[in-house]
């Protein structure tokens, strides 16, 4: 018994010794298992790997890993790894060195050394670089077809918030590739992921070449495509304005509206401030408004003869906008503005050829609505036709209200009834040297009910007849007499004075439009692998219109088309149209030729006929109006063209000619061209002034590589009569993987303009860069054709 108990006791002592040794080894040699039970302060979830062979000093742990198996800690959504790591459990303080890697929510930092606090989730990385992924990619166009992720590096990278970093002595780029094509370098960068990067004393480098210095630079990196921030500046140089720098700040107010604040600095032409506001409230409710103020200093200019003169300084403004807005009660508001205070500024500095050649300015607003067969429209508008800086003529309405009833069938009868009415206060005045010298404004009421009788029993022959009564009332009229001081001459000229005496007019208008007989032929051509149908249509038309007598035509103040109606006349409008259609899958008109002419029994009616576009009110009275030829063709879906001319039967000469066309390959080439001519015809009233003759040609070609990576555009406007270019414009752009460059050169003819600079031609150069995630813009004077987006 004694020996048995001894054996048992000895066995238990040995087992106890082995257990103590195992626990000691476990505690000293494998602290990872101990720490797996405790975790780090500030970590809700915790995991560790490769933590063997370390040592313990209280709550201070030190571990060494290997290049193939680095020490790693997973704390919540963060992951820390390094060759060597130390941490203090209670403080949550971690230090690491050697191949340090920090990963959090798709963001990654690699550093030589790190100090981090797991409680505050903040820390410092030394000699570090990192990448971040934006939650939503920016526009491929703005990013140069490269996903605009973010890459940064610095001597020190301080993580000071959940998504906020401060970089000391480093740079960043959204061009994430082994060798970034561009980068922004700065001694101090504040980086807030998915929001912005703020740089102080920033230097832009492209292919490691210093390109631009900015004292402060705000770079948007928001997850929305429309991000608040500074847009890339534009550099320019022109003969008229000198060197220029254009800057813009884009403010993404919310998803439905944004604003751009712009500033242009010119070395010779002062400064310009302005902005653009855009909004979309919903389908059918949107608007865009651009406003600018240009402060031009006094300048000394050299004239063509070598003499010098002072060009006075001035402050000018420009308003350009469009608004469409739905209103209650089925109403809609439309408003447009293209108004400027100085035509000298417009013609001297504006780089958009269409706007720079305008000699008129306009603004208008309209409210309209319809309810069943009834519709209402109210318009306020003003247009100035400018002669020089201080002289112009004005026309408009304040307001113009129209009310109409759409045509509707009258019961079971074959008759259709409709009516139109208008009441307007017309503005018409002339200003010379800033003094209003004439005012032909008045008010007018017009009522025009119509009864129409259609005849459409035969598809090849239709007749539409109508009878209308028209009654018009004016608050002022013309009276014969000598025009004296203070009197206003009637707009139609002659010895007639406008007087505040009301006048009325009423007449009947009978009209019949006959179409046909229509002839057509259909045939089919068969190719090697397809069949194509053709259809040829010959359609003659005849319109007969009879206007009863208007005895007081000479006493009517003639301002608008309604006032120019001549009575006691019958008008015959006749013509023939040939159309050729082709069908292979889809149908299209490949050729259309129309020939028309009108004859008036009263020769004066032809002079004031609205169809006499180029000679209205100026040509001599004649019974026959010009013969108008119109040709339009579309041999293919990618080639279209139009030609128009009119031939005068009295002078036996072509008065005007015009043609335009376009062609595109569907992928890389788009071209268009146009030509217009108003001829000088001695002895033909309205065309016998050589200074009024015009002969212009214009063309444009746009070449681009698929995806918009590379492209170029060339356009010109040429005056054939004076054998000179009005303007030529060359534009080229190149988008790399994550950056791009655009270059523009324009030569603009200033002869005949109001510039007063004494230079015959302005040469303009613009240079713009695009970075991934940041676009460029068109400055307030229309650089790059006013087409570049943000």
What can you tell me about this protein's structure?
It is elongated and about 115 Å long. It has 790 residues and is mainly beta. The protein has a 26-stranded antiparallel barrel. Helices cover 7% and strands 61% of the residues. It has a domain at 39-220: lipopolysaccharide transport protein A fold (Sandwich).
Give me the secondary-structure topology.
Layout: H1 2-29, H2 31-38, E1 46-49, E2 55-57, E3 60-64, E4 71-75, E5 78-82, E6 84-88, E7 93-104, E8 107-117, E9 122-132, E10 150-159, E11 164-173, E12 182-192, E13 196-206, E14 209-220, E15 229-238, E16 242-254, E17 257-266, E18 270-282, E19 285-296, E20 299-302, E21 308-311, E22 314-327, E23 331-340, H3 343-349, H4 353-356, E24 360-371, E25 374-388, E26 391-409, E27 416-432, E28 435-439, E29 442-458, E30 461-474, E31 477-480, E32 496-499, E33 503-515, E34 519-526, E35 531-547, E36 569-584, E37 586-600, H5 603-607, E38 627-636, E39 639-648, E40 653-664, E41 669-678, E42 694-704, E43 710-719, E44 724-735, E45 739-749, E46 761-771
Antiparallel strand pairs: 1-4, 2-3, 3-6, 4-5, 5-7, 6-7, 7-8, 8-9, 9-10, 10-11, 11-12, 12-13, 13-14, 15-16, 15-46, 16-17, 17-18, 18-19, 19-22, 20-21, 22-23, 23-24, 24-25, 25-26, 26-27, 27-28, 27-29, 29-30, 30-33, 31-32, 33-35, 34-35, 35-36, 36-37, 37-38, 38-39, 39-40, 40-41, 41-42, 42-43, ...
**Would you identify the CATH architecture of one domain?**
Sandwich
Number of helix segments?
5
Mean pLDDT, as a whole number?
86
Main pleated-sheet profile: 26 strands, antiparallel, barrel
Which class best fits the helix and strand makeup?
A: mainly beta
Fraction of residues in β-strands: over 45%
Radius of gyration, taken over Cα atoms and rounded to an integer in Å: 40 Å
CATH topology of one domain: lipopolysaccharide transport protein A fold
Low-confidence stretches: 1-9, 11-37, 136-148
What percent of residues adopt helix (DSSP H or I)?
A: under 10%
* Shape assignment: elongated
At the first level of CATH, the class of one domain is: Mainly Beta
Secondary structure: number of strands? 46
């Amino acid at each position: 018994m004694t020996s048995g108990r001894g054996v048992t006791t000895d066995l238990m002592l040995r087992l106890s010794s082995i257990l103590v040794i195992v626990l000691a080894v476990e505690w000293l040699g494998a602290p990872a298992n101990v720490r797996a039970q405790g975790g780090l302060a500030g970590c809700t979830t915790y995991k560790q790997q490769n933590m063997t062979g370390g040592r313990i000093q209280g709550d201070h742990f030190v571990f060494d890993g290997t290049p193939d198996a680095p020490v790693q800690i997973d704390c919540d959504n963060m992951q820390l790894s390094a060759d060597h790591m130390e941490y203090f459990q209670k403080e949550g303080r971690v230090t690491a060195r050697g191949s340090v890697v920090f990963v959090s929510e798709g963001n990654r930092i690699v550093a030589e050394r790190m100090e981090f606090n797991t409680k505050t989730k903040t820390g410092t990385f030394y000699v570090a670089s990192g990448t971040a992924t934006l939650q939503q990619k920016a526009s491929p166009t703005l990013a140069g077809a490269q996903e605009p992720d973010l890459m940064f590096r610095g001597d020190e990278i301080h993580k000071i918030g959940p998504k906020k970093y401060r970089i000391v002595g480093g740079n960043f780029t959204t061009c994430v590739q082994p060798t970034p094509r561009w980068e922004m370098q700065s001694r101090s960068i504040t980086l807030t992921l998915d929001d912005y990067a703020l740089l102080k004393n920033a230097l832009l480098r492209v292919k490691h070449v210093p390109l631009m210095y900015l004292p402060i630079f705000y770079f948007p990196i928001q997850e929305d495509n429309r991000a608040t921030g500074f847009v890339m500046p534009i550099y320019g140089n022109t003969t008229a304005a000198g060197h220029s720098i254009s800057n813009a700040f884009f403010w993404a107010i919310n998803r439905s509206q944004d604003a751009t604040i712009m500033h242009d600095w010119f070395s010779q032409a002062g400064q310009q401030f302005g902005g653009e506001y855009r909004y979309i409230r919903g389908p059918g409710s949107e608007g865009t408004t651009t406003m600018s103020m240009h402060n031009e200093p006094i300048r000394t200019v050299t004239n063509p003869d070598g003499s010098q003169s002072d060009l006075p300084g001035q402050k000018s403004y420009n308003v350009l906008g469009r608004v469409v807005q739905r209103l209650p009660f089925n109403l809609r508001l439309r408003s447009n503005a293209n108004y400027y205070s100085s035509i000298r500024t417009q013609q001297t500095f504006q780089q958009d050829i269409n706007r720079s050649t305008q000699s008129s300015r306009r603004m208008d607003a309209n409210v309209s609505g319809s309810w069943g067969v009834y519709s209402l429209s109210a318009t306020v508008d003003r247009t100035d036709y400018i002669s020089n800086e201080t002289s112009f003529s004005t026309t408009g309405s304040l307001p113009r209200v129209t009310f109409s009833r759409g045509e509707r069938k009258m019961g079971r009868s074959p008759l259709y009834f409709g009516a139109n009415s208008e009441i307007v206060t017309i503005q018409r005045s002339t200003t010379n040297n800033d003094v209003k010298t004439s005012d032909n404004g008045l008010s007018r009421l017009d009522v025009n009910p119509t009864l129409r009788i259609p005849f459409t029993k035969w598809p090849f022959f239709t007749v539409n007849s109508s009878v209308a009564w028209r009654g018009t009332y004016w608050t002022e009229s013309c009276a014969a007499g000598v025009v004296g001081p203070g009197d206003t001459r009637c707009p139609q000229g002659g010895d007639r004075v406008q007087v505040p005496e009301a006048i009325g007019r009423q007449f009947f208008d009978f009209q019949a439009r006959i179409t046909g007989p229509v002839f057509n032929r259909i045939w089919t051509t068969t190719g090697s692998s397809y069949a194509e149908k053709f259809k040829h249509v010959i359609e003659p038309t005849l319109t007969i219109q009879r206007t009863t007598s208007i005895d007081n035509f000479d006493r009517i103040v003639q301002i608008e088309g309604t006032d120019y109606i001549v009575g006691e006349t019958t008008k015959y409008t006749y013509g023939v149209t040939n159309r050729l259609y082709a069908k292979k899958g889809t149908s299209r008109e490949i050729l259309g030729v129309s020939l028309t002419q009108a004859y008036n029994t009263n020769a004066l009616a032809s002079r004031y006929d609205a169809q006499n576009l180029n000679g209205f009110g100026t040509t001599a009275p004649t019974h026959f109006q010009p013969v108008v030829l119109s040709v339009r063709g579309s041999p293919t879906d990618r080639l279209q063209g139009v030609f128009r001319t009119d031939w005068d039967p009295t002078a036996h000469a072509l008065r005007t000619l015009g043609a335009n066309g376009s062609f595109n390959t569907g992928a890389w080439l788009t071209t268009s061209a146009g030509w217009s001519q108003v001829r000088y015809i001695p002895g033909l009233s309205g065309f016998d002034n050589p200074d009024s003759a015009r002969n212009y040609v214009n063309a444009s070609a746009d070449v681009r590589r698929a995806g918009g990576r590379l492209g170029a555009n060339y356009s010109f406007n040429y005056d054939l009569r004076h054998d000179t270019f009005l303007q030529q414009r060359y534009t080229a752009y190149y988008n790399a993987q994550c950056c791009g460059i655009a270059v523009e050169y324009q030569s603009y003819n200033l002869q005949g303009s109001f510039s007063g600079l004494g230079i015959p031609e302005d040469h303009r150069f613009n240079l713009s860069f695009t970075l991934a995630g940041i676009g460029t813009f068109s400055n307030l004077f229309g650089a790059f054709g006013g087409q570049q987006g943000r």
